[in-house]
Structures are given as C-alpha cells and as structure tokens.
Amino acid sequence: MKTHRLRNTLRGFAVLALIGSVGAETYYAHRLAERIEALQAKPAGDAAPPLAAIANTPWAAMHADMMAWQAGMARLFDASRGDMDDTSFATAIAQAPISLEEQDDTYVVTAALPGAGDNDVNVDLDGRVVRIVAATESTQTQTTDDGQWRGQQHVASHYEQALTLPGPVDAAAMSSQFHDGVLTVMVPKAAS
Fold first, then answer.
1. Contacts of 168 (CB under 8 A, 6+ apart)
2. Domain segments of the chain: what residues?
3. Is 0.90 topped by the overall pTM?
4. E strand spans, the chain
5. What is the pLDDT of residues 62-84, one digit of tens each?
6. Pairing state of beta strands 175-179 and 182-188?
7. Domain covering 89-188: architecture
8. Are 89 and 55 in contact (CB under 8 A)?
9. Around Cβ 127, how many Cβ atoms within 10 Å?
C-alpha cells in the first residue's frame, strides 16, 4: 500500500517537473520570438545586430533576463545605502597623494591626508626611510526627520606610506607640521 502511494507521489512530481520545464521553454521561446520581431521591425538605418548573431535558444532570453535582474538588484542595494557618506576618510585617504621635493639643503615630503586630525597622524624616520601612518575611526548615525533611527556606519581606516629619501639625512633635525589635512615633513640633508 505504501509503495503505491510513493509511486503516485513520484509520478506527480515528475508531471509537475515536466509541466514546469515545458512552461519555461515556452516562455523563453516566446520572449526570443518577441525580440527577433522587434529587431526585424527596426528601420534599416538603425545599427541592429544581424539575426544570425542572436542565439536561437531560450538560453539567450534567459541570460538577458538574468542580466536585467542583476542590474535591478544592484540599483536596489545602491538605493538602500541611502545618504551614507561614501567620501569618508577611508575612501579619501586610500588615494592620498604624496610628493618628495629636493631643495638645496632639505628634503620636503608633502602628503594630503583629508579627514585626518592632528592626533591621527604619525611620522617616523628610520635611516633614510620616512614612514607616514594615519589611522582613524568614526561612527556616523543616520536618523529620519522625525528622529527615528535609520542606520549607522562605522568606518575605521589605516593608511601607511614609506618613502626612501635619495641621500643621507640629519634625522635629529627632522621637523613636521600638519595643517588643514596636509602633512609637510622637512628632513635636512646630512652635512657632507
């Protein structure tokens, strides 16, 4: 008796699978036919791909649908981020420009560190290697106009850049200043 029920259940599943696959095949064949018809209806001046370039399978239509769904999901996730700040310290500092200028008796290293504070930056000189380290953490909370909590973003970033100076230096006389997000390090050349 149980074997009879199991067979009927399996037959039911097989029929449902067959109906589903035929339905999907029909749907995608219909979509492909619509696309071919739309291409044929375009005026000759339009730069439409030749019909031979279109795969005559339902997989081409399914692929196009999948790409459209993927683009829709990307838009959905981009919209869900709302007004969270993309141009935070982490984004800006990762691309911080650094330059080295050789003057008569001094090497001048300049680094733009937007968003960093005085206490976030550390400069170290080891031999002829200048190492600049900037690290920061921030938390941004977002609320609606009526004060209801909407989201929170925690950003922690670390930036480190090492630069070898071209000649011998006087490490004891090194000085640095940080003003408006720009770090300037002055390293005097060693006396010859």
1. 128, 189, 190
2. 2-80, 89-188
3. no
4. 98-102, 106-112, 121-126, 129-143, 149-164, 175-179, 182-188
5. 666 777 777 777 776 666 555 44
6. antiparallel
7. Sandwich (2.60)
8. no
9. 10
> What is the distance in angstroms between the CA of the first residue and the CA of the last residue of the chain?
103
Q: Looking at the predicted structure, is the pLDDT value of residue 179 above 60?
A: yes
Q: How far apart are CA 100 and CA 164, in angstroms?
A: 10
User: Residue 13 has which token pair?
Assistant: 């599943």
Residues listed for the chain: 192
> By percentage, how much of the chain surpasses pLDDT 90?
13
Report which residue type is found at 126.
Answer: D
Inter-residue contact 148 to 140 (CB < 8 Å) = no
pLDDT of 90 reads 46
- Is residue 63 within 8 Å of 32, Cβ to Cβ? no
